[in-house]
Amino acid sequence: MNRNSSVKARIAISLLPKLNSCIYLPLIERCGGLEGFFLESDQALNQLYRELNIPTDTFNRKTAIQNSEAEIEQLDKHEIQICTIEDGCYPELLRQCADAPLVFFYKGKLKSSPANKYLAIVGTRHASSRCEARVTALVEDLVNLGCRPVLVSGLAYGIDASAHRASLKFGLTTLAVLGHGLHMIYPATHKSMARQILETGGAWISEFPCTANIHPSNFLRRNRIIAGLCHATLVAESAIKGGAMATARLAMSYDREVMAFPGRPEDKYSAGCNFLIKENIAALTENATDVAHLLGYPIKKTTLQQTILPNFSDDEQGNTLIQLLSENGALHIDELCQLTQRPSSELAAILLQLELEGKIIGLAGKKYSLR
């Protein structure tokens, strides 16, 4: 990496965490760009601070430029690339967020095609095996529907890891947004998975330089990038408090779709999902078709196959109805009429007989299912 002033300026921005936000984009633009901020005189910069209501001496430019040398060495050593708000490869959805980072680091490939759909799958580190399996099945079903979104998560234990593993298993590109510099992987047990993400065309992303200290708050800060990169965020499993809940609220603030798997009321790590649904923050999501519709994929609605009954006896018609309920699950009497081309008055008597014989169950709303 060439140690020119432009590169140093880009890296120095990342070493000033308070400045590394599009909130300060008006200041950067008034200076003529990222490099211009570091070239501006103290007098001119203080004047801009006053005009933009920014406290003076907020940013130590000199120290940041000096420290950029050490960071450049780390970027060279670990083959880490840098992307700024001024670059064409900066993700467009993230660019739209008011608090997006001015600068971030990455390894791998940044997908920026407008045709790509981006889906974040997030949740608790204490994921249940039931919900991990649910995430895997969802990703498989999306692929079977012909939907191939880029999946984004945080490479943490639990739901994050399940989302990345499923992406790798079913051939989807996946991005891992990390809460630390890209010279390392945390947790270390996910190093192999992280390498596979790069090998299959994905990327690691972080706004944190290698030389910065790791703080627990970093993992909350990175959630805005996860939400900002995506058209939609799915909370698979979460308690009332946690990073996934913060990511959902951030996605909502960016006017993006939010989805959640419903869970059992007594489950601690379903309480967050149920709350998001109850408060109309998230759409209740049960399957891949729900996700595909919210992402805007053109999914064809399946139609029931019609079965025309000849003039058979009641017993034969009863067997046919049982077969239809076995193949399709619970059906409304109108659907049974459509499938069999028989009037409801005729079917009602047969359905009642089957119910009395204990072969089917009458449900609310004139629906029937097998017992």
Automatic annotation (TrEMBL):
Signal peptide: none annotated. GO terms for biological process: DNA-mediated transformation. Gene3D superfamilies: 3.40.50.450, Winged helix-like DNA-binding domain superfamily/Winged helix DNA-binding domain. Residues 313-366 form the DprA winged helix domain. Residues 82-294 form the Smf/DprA SLOG domain. It holds the Pfam family WHD_DprA. SUPFAM superfamilies: MCP/YpsA-like. Belongs to the DprA/Smf family. NCBIfam families: dprA (TIGR00732). This is DNA-processing protein DprA. The lineage of its organism: Bacteria, Pseudomonadati, Bacteroidota, Bacteroidia, Bacteroidales.
